[in-house]
Specification:
heterodimer; A: 14 helices; flat; B: mainly alpha; globular; disordered C terminus
């Protein structure tokens, strides 16, 4: 009887959720579980995997110097691009939202375009070209700031900063659009009520009304920033090559692609993915706590 | 005095409005620079493309690059319209299915809070943080087990279950759809699907319009290369990449290709954003 009542109450809910959840299990959950299991094996994709226990993890943490460089670089990269792109998305979305519709659409497109422009970001390799003809070098030489061209993309001291700049340039994507849509979902009467209650300027309004009202989008944006900043790799390789000078642009993902796609050590690559996953989940928990303090 | 660009609001000073505008213009110029360069390059004749030092703006604009692209596309073994159709099918079905399935599930999670919904939602958020490079192989095995290798389904069906769309829709339903609105519709005797389709979905219109852009964008650029082998099922980005990979002599064509590939998503974006703005102007659906 109890089962029947339960079924009657939730039947529609499960029916609604079932198609998506089923596909999600098949195409996401199962592959992730398989990958985690593979991280305890030695697997070259041709022969069956061999169980090696914690070996991959021990090797990663204690015997792979380059992995530690990659973790250090990823941390630096993520701790800058993550927060900066997050606040850039938020502030710009907020400013743009105040504008009249036509201007708003135009500016949204202007800021969003780099993130959908595919390989257009490779243009930065011309701007930051290492000889005197590169745009940045040319300007800095002419202004007398530097006296010889800087090899931006091969010098280990500069290449990471260039990739960070380019990443920020193309980072106004998913979160930016979500924020813009989120701002549109805020009830206008909240602002009127706020003004009557003594909200005096735009910053107070942002803190006491806008941000609390769009907390779900803030959480969404935070997770998007975490995933994209920790998972950077492909674009970095396009900019600075692989391997980069002294591994200065080496991230966990480039290390992972090295082992997964070049050396066919899939078990080892899966162990890296699992460690990166743990780092990201930890960061997310931390940020979730911070977001709870808003407003 | 208010700047005419802004909508009126009490809590705004015109000095602040002006400062915000200046910041937008400066950053906007920085964002636009490389795009301007690419657009310029697409119209550059060969001698300007390889000019040293490179020139930012084009001096003698030409349509040669686009003509070359047209010739190369006409030469291709499979007609280019076929690649275009393939991409169109994948993008249209993938986006429509994803928006529908993700919204339905997000609605049930956000508004019904059925037993197990919290676990499912945490799994979906967590899955965003697992590097897709590693799951590619298990995924390939699954798709080959289903017998979908070398078919549209191999790209379309996994796209339906992408984690991002559900997360986005769920967050917006939390923010925008008040329970009382749904309750009112239920009391009027609406079935749960009608409540979802005619009450919840119109309320979260900015959300699914945004999701359409995101999903369209990722499928439009999909090369499908690891699953699709038959030449006549391959996608437009794949075909255009082949043209560009012809080497240094194709640099001009490459710039033209970059522009052509961006044209459709940008058009979709502009139409889409305009309808976002229109809804917000006309509907007063909020209580």
């Amino acid at each position: 009887m109890r089962g029947e009542a339960f079924w009657k109450k939730w039947r529609i809910s499960y029916l609604f959720a079932a198609p998506y959840v089923l596909l999600f299990l098949v195409f996401t959950v199962i592959p992730v579980i398989i990958s985690i299991v593979l991280s305890f094996t030695s697997y070259n994709m041709l022969q069956p995997p061999i169980w090696v226990g914690w070996n991959n993890y021990v090797k990663l943490l204690f015997a792979d110097d380059i992995f530690l460089i990659a973790v250090k670089n990823t941390m630096l990269f993520a701790s800058i691009t993550g927060p900066v792109s997050y606040f850039l998305c938020l502030i710009l979305a907020w400013f743009i939202h105040e504008l009249r519709p036509m201007v708003r659409t135009f500016l949204t497109l202007l800021f969003y375009a780099p993130s959908i422009s595919g390989n257009v970001f490779m243009i930065w390799t011309i701007l930051f070209s290492g000889d005197a003809y590169g745009w940045v070098n040319g300007l800095l030489l002419r202004w007398g700031i530097i006296y010889e061209p800087v090899r931006w993309l091969t010098n280990p001291d500069t290449l990471m900063w260039v990739t960070i700049l380019v990443t920020l340039w193309m980072s106004l994507g998913t979160s930016f659009l979500a924020f813009i849509a989120g701002l549109q979902g805020i009830d206008e009467t909240l602002y009127e009520a706020g003004a009557l209650d003594g909200v005096g300027n735009r910053w107070q309004e942002l803190w006491f009304i806008t941000l609390p009202a769009m907390r779900p989008q803030l959480m969404f944006g935070a997770i998007m920033s975490i995933t994209s900043s920790f998972a950077a790799g492909k674009n970095i390789v396009s900019l600075v090559g692989f391997p980069s000078t002294d591994y200065a642009g080496h991230t966990v993902i480039t290390h992972l692609m090295d082992y997964g796609n070049i050396r066919f050590e899939m078990g080892y690559a899966a162990a890296m993915a699992t460690l990166l996953f743990i780092i990201m989940v930890g960061t997310q928990k931390l940020i979730q706590r911070l977001l709870g303090k808003i407003g | 005095m208010k700047l005419p660009l802004y909508r009126k609001r009490v809590t705004r000073s015109s000095g602040g409005d002006f400062a915000a505008l200046v910041m937008l213009v400066i950053l906007g110029a920085f964002m636009a620079l490389p795009m301007v360069y690419v657009i310029g390059s697409a119209f550059k004749p060969l001698n300007e493309l390889f000019l040293f030092p490179p020139r930012f703006f084009v001096h003698n604009p030409t349509l040669d690059n686009f003509k070359d692209l047209a010739v190369l596309m006409a030469d291709s073994w499979v007609p280019i319209s076929r690649y275009f159709l393939n991409t169109l099918i994948i993008t249209a079905f993938g986006t429509a299915g994803h928006v529908l399935l993700a919204s339905l599930c997000a609605f049930a999670i956000s508004k019904h809070r059925f037993p197990g919904s919290r676990v499912i939602f945490s799994l979906i958020v967590l899955s965003l943080m697992f590097a897709p490079e590693v799951t590619a192989i298990p995924n390939y095995l699954t798709i080959s087990f289903l017998g979908w290798i070398d078919s549209y389904s191999a790209v379309i069906v996994p796209a339906w279950a992408s984690s991002l769309g559900l997360f986005l829709m769920k967050q917006f339903m939390d923010q925008m759809v008040p329970d009382s609105l749904l309750e009112a519709a239920r009391i009027d005797g609406a079935s749960e699907f009608v409540v979802f389709w005619q009450v919840a979905m119109p309320t979260v219109r900015p959300a699914w319009l945004t999701l359409i852009i995101l999903s369209f964008q990722s499928l439009w650029g999909n090369t499908g290369s690891s699953f699709i082998y038959s030449e006549n099922l391959k996608t437009l980005p794949y075909a255009l990449n082949q043209i560009v990979s012809g080497g240094i002599a194709r640099a001009g064509v490459g710039a033209a290709v970059a522009l052509v590939m961006m044209f459709v998503p940008i058009t979709v974006f502009v139409i889409n954003q305009r309808s976002v703005v229109q809804t917000m102007g006309t509907s007063g659906l909020k209580e």
